[in-house]
Amino acid sequence: MTLVLTLQPDDPTPPYEQLRRQLADLITAGLLGPGDRLPPLRQLAGDLGVAVGTVARAYRELEQEGLLTSRRGGGTRVAAGGQVPAGGRRQLLGGMAAEFVARARSLGFTDEEIIVALGRQLPLS
Amino acid sequence: MSLIVLFVLVGTPLLLTMIALSLTRGSVETGEEWTRVRWMWAVAVLIGGVVAWLLYGSLDLGRGAMLVPAVLGVAVVVGVGLGETVVRPQRPAGPRSASLVARQVSDYLPRGLTAVVLATAVLHLATLTLTTVTASPDDMGRAGRQVAAQCGTTGSAASPYPGSYYSVPMSVVFLVIGLTTVAALMAVVRRPRGFAPDEVGDDVLRRWSTTRVLAAAGAALAASHAGTAFFAGTALLRMECQRAWMEPVGWVLVASVPVALLLLGWFLGRIVTPGALPAARPQQPAGAR
């Protein structure tokens, strides 16, 4: 499975913050594990069509949060003792569910309709 | 002499880069790039041919002739490299995605072609090393221009023989070919995603590009080896008196000429063969593709 980052040009969130959030979510969800190497700044910036500084800022902020570690010549990796809070994975999912429910309710869907829609998306449940 | 070669080695890539940039002016439409890439190759061969012809006329005693294939090779490598990196279509607008896998040149090198190019390079460098070590000064005292042997009281010599007189400028040209190839391969691997409908297609495009760049380097080496081996082999076989190693080595070198020419044809075929993109895969949710 290849992990992919996506930048939405029409999203008002600054590109570095979109990147920071997606990377943080991937680490919190456990899809990026301790020691996993991230692509070089230039590669990521080129693919996403942003300045190298934008990616560098996202990496730097994640380093300050203790999620990434950089070494000269060794690239940027997911920190071994990352400060992912206990239960962070569950918390992340809970946050996503809360966001979805809030958006659906704001569009006038009832709780029953939301549950039915979710059930259709999860055929095994 | 060294100034002319230096001018050629710096001027030719610079001129080709300017032409490549002018070919991309006004943006290249998707699907149109193949035409422009072929224009880039044609221009590179034309400019390489003119430069090689000028060099042939300005360097005496066969030095120009020995450098012709290598100089033409530099132009081909630069032209193919620019075609795969600079002459690219505009990426479509909209969301941009990036894989979190760090790309490395070694992941995109076709094994068979890489092995053949390396073997050609080793053969050619071994030939140049042998001829450099075994050459002697000519009757005018120019070091490394002929091969000579002593048979009792009489001696025999043959030239032109690719000793240091020829091999030093050729080695400089090869260094440039090697550095240009590495730079082009790195640029191809760093090239942004988004020229193909999905990641698989993007990898396929990247592998084609590395194949063409590598094949261009192979063509430069094979062409140059054919010329060097021909001059060296025939010089060794022309000697009236020979040391024990000269005849077998001479035959091996002469035999390697048609092999190098066949390889040259194969390398050129790998450059010009267009490929087809795999069908786009159905879209999957962002985050894990």
UniProtKB/TrEMBL annotation, chain A:
InterPro entries in UniProt: HTH_trans_reg/aminotransferase, Tscrpt_reg_HTH_GntR, WH-like_DNA-bd_sf, WH_DNA-bd_sf
Transcription regulation in keyword set: yes
All residue ranges annotated as the HTH gntR-type domain in the record: 13-81
Keywords for this protein: DNA-binding, Pyridoxal phosphate, Transcription, Transcription regulation
Family matches, as PROSITE patterns: HTH_GNTR
Pfam families per the UniProt record, alphabetical: GntR
Source species, domain of life: Bacteria
Keyword Lipid metabolism assigned: no
One GO molecular-function entry: DNA-binding transcription factor activity
Protein name as annotated: DNA-binding transcriptional regulator YhcF, GntR family
TrEMBL record, chain B:
Transmembrane segments: 6-27, 39-59, 65-87, 108-130, 168-189, 213-237, 249-268
This protein's UniProt keywords: Membrane, Transmembrane, Transmembrane helix
Name the record gives this protein: Uncharacterized protein
